[in-house]
Each structure stands twice: as structure tokens, then as C-alpha cells.
Amino acid sequence: MESKTTATSPFSEQTTVESTEEPLTDSDRAAEKAVLRRVDWHILPLITLIYMLAFLDRANIGNGRLYGLEKDLGLRGNQFQTAVAVFFATYVACEVPSTIFLKKLRPARFISGIAVLWGVIATFTGLVQNYEGLLACRLLLGLAEGPLFPCLIVYLTFFYTRKELAVRFGYVVLGGALSGAVSGLLAYAIGYMDGRHGLRAWRWLLLIEGPPSVGLGVFGWFFLADSPETAWYLSPSQRKTLILRSTRDEREASTPSARILHRSDVLAAFKDWKIWAFSVLNFLADIQIFSYAYFLPTIIKAINPAWSTVYVQALTIPCFIWAAITFFAIAYASDKLQHRAIFGILACLVSIIGHVMLIAGHNVAVQYTGCFFIASGIYVVSGIAVVWMPTNLPRYGKRSTAVGMQLMIGTSAGIAAPYLYPTGDTPRYVMGHAVTIGLLGLCAMINGLLWWSMVKTNRKRAAGKEDWKISDLTDGEIDELGDKSPRFVYAT
């Protein structure tokens, strides 16, 4: 058994833990499971709620549209679509810088602080009086919410091994899916408040949905921990166990140097073609996510124009609940089987069937069922890719930069997505569905390309064909290579 010094959080220098290659005993496994359960209870419910409220505050403009937002603010032409799209101009600009410097920003405090900020902005959006005011609030909301998603992904990698990330990331996705269901439920209820105290229903919607983010942000400021080393809810021995799990999981990059930010790692992320491929994959997949989130009420209304606005809001709820259920099931299977690409490809095909049903369906049942087919894959295509990439990047600097790149490029899809479903295309919205079908086809192809490349590399390394790269290196120098090490095995 050897003693190995591992890097800690940026708030303490180093901690010394025992690293061993010996098999774990039953008592060791039981201790790890107990620590993991404790970490789960202190992280997952809170980040699920935080992301749910973030998605709720950004997407409720779609529900507000059905309650007269466009008419009250005098919006004309594509001004509503522009108001939706400008959110992403500031949103994407924050993603890479926030992930690179997350450790220096105190992760728990930073995540909680921006929740308070966007909650205030979302609330005041309910008081705007014109198009210009709406644009200003949407730009500020994007600035506040932009860092959240990538920072949550990086934050999870501090506490969990790469074999556990898909299910844990599923809780973040669950927050997004639940926001759709909650948004529809709240919109259904708040619709009956139209005209109360002289305010239209869409204003009540925004005014009511903003303050919970403020309250949750204040709570998270005191409840979340920045890293395993500062987890106040764990005993010293439990913190040591958590650090050992991480060291064992990332044995190819278990040196102190690999766990801190280096300029060379940041540059390496920009030079890796696979990271760019993952980023493009997320861009294509996110166009479907954003268009579905913003325009599902509009699409369902077009299926049967006789349905009331309140009834349409209620019909959106089962779709988002189904999306959450399917993602969780697939995330569990993906972690259990340790396969990523195949699930991404299958999700693309299922969503494509849904879009075809909406274009070609000739009755209400077929078209509404198509919404469920789309929901089955909507979060899986993007979600699997978001989990897959960082698990193959053991060095912190490269991983955090790559996550920022992937999500910055991916969420920039929100700028284009609102224009795929113009009002004039009702009721079939053929252009939006056809374009999305093509993009999902490309997603499936990129998934296949990444799988093929990683499997090919794994086979070469298993056969010893890359051992020449480390023939003159010490074990410590090999550890520094991260995913470039011949000893590293890609998750596929």
C-alpha cells in the first residue's frame, strides 16, 4: 500500500490519503455506499430543484404567449421569437469562462448566488410594458442563468465517479423535464387569475414563478458544499473515503497536477476533435429541446384549435413527465451496462418517428402520441452526450473547458430554435419538424463516429500498439497524460 498526495479543493492545499490497488472488502463497499447515499441526499434534490426553477423561469414565456403576452406588449412579426432567442446571446457567452474558473469562484456559493440573481430578474419580467423592456430582461436572464448548467455538470464530477454520472446527471435532466410539467400545471391554475387586481394571467405567471428561485438560492448558499474536502455533512473519515473513490476512478490522472487548472489543459481541449464533435452533437440535439420546450403548447393547440388554452396547458404535463421517466430509465441502463452511444442513436430514431407522426398524422390521437415519441428521446440525445464526454476526460482543466465548450455551442441552438416554428406554418409546422428530423439524423451519425473512434483506440491500446509512447516515462509521467495515456480506456 502506498501513500499518495491528491489535490484538494482550491480552498485547502493538499490532503494525504491512502491509495491502494488491493480489492475492496465488503466493509469498504458498505462504507462507500453509505457515504454515497449521504452525498446524494445533500446534492441531488437541491440541484434538481435549482435547475427546474431555472428552466421554468426561462421557458415560461412560451406559456405566457397563450395568455396574451404578444398582444399586451404590442409584439409584431417575429418579435416574440426574437425575445426568446436573445436570452441565449448572453447565456452562451458565460458558459466556458464559468466552468474554467468554477473552483476559484467557490462552486456552491456561485451556483446559489446566480439562482438569487435570475429569480429577481424573472420576477421583474412580469412588470415589463413594452418590447424593449422584454428584450432587456431576457438578456439579463440569460446572463444570470448561463453558468448554471455547465457548472452543475462539472460540480457533479467533483463528487461522483464516471460510472455513476449518467444517473446523477439524470436528476438535472429531471429538473428540466419537471419544469415543463410544473410550468403547464401552474399555467393551467394561473389562467384562472386572469384580470385579478388588473393584471393579465401572463404577468401573474412570471411574478409567481420568479421568487422561489431566490429562496432556493439563499438556502443553497448555506447547504451545498464546494468539494468533497469541504463537505460539512461528512465526517473526516467519510470525506477521506469519498476522495479515495475519486482517486481510484481517475487512476490515470490521480496526481495533484492533474486535478488543478493548467493553461496547457485548456488549450488541449480546443485541439481535441472529439470535443468539437460532442459540441456539434449537442447543438443539433438542443435545437429539438428548446423548440419543444417553447413551442409544445403551440404545437398541441394546432392539433385541435377548438381546445381551450387552459386545456392545452394541461396536455403538456404528461409529455414532460414521460420525458423524465424515459430519460431516467435510459440513464440507469446506460450506467448499468456502461454503454453510451447506442442509447443516443436509439433516442434519435424514436424522436424522428414522433416528428413524422406530427407531419403525416391525420387525427388527433396520432399527432398527440407523436408528442410522446419526441419526448422519449428529447433529453436522451443531448443528455447522454453531456455525460459521455466528461467521463473520458480525467484531467480537470481539460474536462472543465470541454464541458463549457460543449454546452456553449449546444445551447447556442436556442438562438435558432425559436424561428423553426413561425406562426404562419400552423397547423402542421412542416418546416420545423422536417429540419429537426434532418438534425437528429446527423446526431445519430456523430454518435456512431465517436463510438467507432473510441472503440478503435481502445483496441489499439489493449493490443499494446501505443505502448511506445510511454516506454521512457515514469509512472508519474504516465499519470499526467490523462486520456492520452495508453493505459486510459474510453467509455463508449
Structure description:
By secondary structure, the protein is an all-alpha fold. 71% of the residues lie in helices and 2% in strands. It is built from 20 helices and 2 strands. The protein has a two-stranded antiparallel sheet with strand order 1-2. A hairpin with a 6-residue loop joins strand 1 and strand 2. Helix 1 runs parallel beside helix 5. It is globular, with a radius of gyration of 23 Å. The chain starts with a strand and ends in a 13-residue tail after the last helix. The N terminus is likely disordered.
Draw up the topology in text.
Layout: E1 2-7, E2 14-19, H1 26-66, H2 69-73, H3 79-93, H4 95-100, H5 107-125, H6 131-145, H7 148-159, H8 165-190, H9 201-209, H10 211-223, H11 236-249, H12 263-271, H13 273-303, H14 309-337, H15 341-360, H16 364-388, H17 396-411, H18 413-416, H19 430-462, H20 475-479
Antiparallel strand pairs: 1-2
Which features would summarize this protein structure in a list?
492 residues; mainly alpha; disordered N terminus; 20 helices; globular
